[in-house]
Write a structure and sequence with these properties.
This protein has 348 residues and is an all-alpha fold. It contains nine helices and no strands.
């Protein structure tokens, strides 16, 4: 069967990460070259500086409850984006090694049926990827235009309340600052949404491997020739160890990201829902908050969905082998396999 390219579906994801400075070329980590300089400029100037201006402004508006709420729910999400960028770039070498592991023979589908199972999951991931992007673009669009629609731009109102060490209320500084805020928010949104979808894809790949292994176990050719049967079983158990190694590598950096994601999402959704109660219904700001809340919900849903799918598929593994045809297998092989499967069930 032809080699299955796991990167094909996520190529747009990887391309966007590269454009944001989060994906060095080849299978290397960051090195002292032009790409490192480019990554530093993009992340520092459009992410760190932008978030810093929002954070500093909190000290000037802490006694203005309405302004504080408008800033806080956005600031929490963007601080989470910095956390994701940090863990992702810190572990970029592990991330690339995981994609390299998928090219190994044990991770390749053996039959058309297995390929169809994988492509079905990849199609769902593509739909979620599109849903997240639509929500992000809608939120960015409404944020960009609501000062224009409600006329507050005439008073020097920016899309986001922030502090700058210059007077941004005069031309052309107002226009430059306005464009900078939109560009910075877009960069942060592109970074965090593509990191989220990429991590979801890694969980999808791990779950797909359990599907492949389950199908391989069900199709085992057990016969009176114990040596041949044992060799087939050995290949399956080696595949299982490879999957566990794949999952452990993901957890090295995913655990903290998921922890902060759930915390930040709970705070953000709560603050966004409160914000909806104090702004004019069906205004441009109202729609921006709705779109933003929708993006956060899709974001956390992806982590929940693929985490749950991975758990369910791993549990199916211990039962898959019992669907193989054991009628021709020897008692010795059956007993040995039973012991190994019991251990497999414990690991799953």
């Amino acid at each position: 069967m032809a080699h299955f390219d796991w990167r094909l579906t996520i190529r747009a994801n990887i391309f966007t990460l590269r454009m944001m400075g989060l994906w060095p070329k080849h299978n290397k980590k960051y090195e002292f070259n032009l790409y490192l300089l480019y990554a530093f400029v993009v992340i520092f100037f459009f992410a760190v500086v932008h978030i810093l201006t929002l954070a500093i402004n909190v000290f000037f508006i802490y006694n203005n409850f309405d302004a504080l709420m408008k800033t806080t729910y956005i600031l929490v999400t963007e601080l989470l984006s910095l956390v994701k960028i940090y863990f992702f770039t810190k572990n970029i070498q592990i991330v690339k090694q995981l994609l390299t592991m998928l090219d190994k023979k044990p991770f390749q589908p053996r039959t058309v049926k297995q390929k169809v199972l994988i492509e079905k999951d990849l199609k769902l991931w593509t739909q979620m990827y599109s849903m997240l992007w639509v929500s992000c673009i809608a939120a960015l669009l409404f944020w960009a235009i609501f000062p224009i629609l409600d006329g507050s731009y005439r008073e020097g109102q920016l899309p986001f309340l922030a502090w700058y060490p210059f007077d941004f209320g005069v031309t052309p500084m107002y226009q430059i600052t306005y464009v900078y805020q939109i560009l910075s928010t877009s960069v942060v949104a592109m970074c965090t949404s593509n990191i989220d979808t990429f991590l979801a894809a890694l969980n999808l790949f791990a779950g797909a491997q359990f599907d492949v292994l389950c199908d391989n176990l069900k199709q085992l050719n057990l016969c009176e020739d114990d040596s041949k049967s044992k060799e087939d079983l050995k290949i399956c158990f080696q595949h299982h160890r490879e999957i566990l190694s794949f999952g452990e590598s993901i957890n090295k950096f995913l655990d903290w990201i998921v922890f902060f994601q759930f915390f930040a999402s709970a705070v953000t959704i709560g603050l966004a829902m409160f914000q909806l109660t104090v702004i004019a219904p069906f205004s441009s700001e109202f729609y921006s908050v709705i779109s933003f809340g929708g993006a956060v919900i899709v974001e956390i849903f992806m982590y929940c969905w693929y985490g749950n799918e991975l758990t369910l598929k791993s549990r199916n593994l211990a039962y898959a082998i019992f669907e193989a045809d054991w009628s021709m297998a020897s008692i010795e092989l059956s007993l040995e396999t039973f012991i190994k499967v019991t251990y497999l069930f414990y690991l799953a």
